Predict the 3D structure of the following.
Amino acid sequence: MPIATVNPATGETLTTFDEFDHKEIDSRLARARWAFLDHRKTTYAYRAERMRRAADLLDAERDSIAATMTTEMGKTLAAARAEAAKCAKAMRWYAEHAEELLADEHPSAADIEDSGGTAAFVRYRPLGPVLAVMPWNFPLWQVVRFAAPALMAGNTALLKHASNVPQTALYLEDLFRRAGFPEGCFQTLLVGSAAIEGILRDPRVVAATLTGSEPAGRSVAAIAGDEIKKTVLELGGSDPFVVMPSADVARAAEVAVTARVQNNGQSCIAAKRFIVHADIFEDFAARFTEGMKALRVGDPMEETTDVGPLASKQGRADLERLVDEAVASGATVLCGGERPRHLRAGWFYEPTVLADVTPEMLIHREETFGPVATLYRVDSLGAAIELANDVPFGLSSNAWTEDQEEQERFIRDVEAGGVYFNGMTASHPAMPFGGIKRSGYGRELAGHGIREFCNVTTVWYGAKPGDGGPAAK
């Protein structure tokens, strides 16, 4: 795949970039290593000052970088602006909280005595240069939610971004440089996927994080495992959106529309399977379908557009394949199901609702990365949970119920990294994010995320430390 900006609203190639050669890659890996040796010694206050400056720059440049994101991958301009604002918020959050999240931890005096020591504590130390392999769907946020904690922890970062968002990738490198992070702390690598293995096997790279497809995650995990290097993977999702009789059906249907079509439906944590109790199924289905029909599909640069194009021609073809196979196998199209007739250019697809979906259909088990929802009718809480779990993924989940016993059942039994009640899944810097099953492993954000790429170091004293030794209080 060429490294290029191709406008998905028109199909026009706007600019292309040459891949880095081996010499340039080697130079950048060397810079990352040398930068780490200095960056790890800096104070939290030093890093926080630069992280806040990056946030300020991003806020000031929100409109221009939003336009770049929209041009490169098709999200609406309003969504792009919101993404930039969210990134600045996360930068400030880690600038504020990193030191306390990585503060030394102290066992009890009794446990220290039982260990035979006189003092002990746990210190979180940075690992080194971390490779981030990132996707195009949230081209700023996916990177920042890794980079902000990684840099605040004292690591350095190497970004291999998706090949269709090169200008956003280069902007991020420039942003951190202008914010005052020394050369080599954050670098973009303009390389194709074929270069990832060599970079990951290089001894100067100590760990990797990947957000993307299941095949990409398998590949990176296998290489890193062979090299015995830490990885964090956030892969696909087919999140359930369960609605029970005690729910506010009108509100649930309204939120369901946003939950399905956020980012033009191209989000791992977008709700994709809508599982509704039979007692309220007809009411919910009618409201949800009308909401999907009312969405305006069009130019993502226009403020009135609700749903823009898919990011690539292949992405639309993959979505069409799933819908067409489901319809041929007996699924009912409640709305959509085809390309918009008023848009001749670009990779658009109508917001679509399918009912009568069965487990035998491909669309039941594969992730639908676009504005297509599948609708299921169930007659009990147990059936709802069983269906929610009946996919290979386990990223997040949504459940609409006011019944506390039902809520406890969802928390206990739903196989996912998150359970969101009476709302939609959304990532926040203060809350850990990640999945189970084939949705990956490890966590991003919050304290869990910043500690993923730290050396959890046990420090133990068999004799009392001297006055000039490290603090163990």
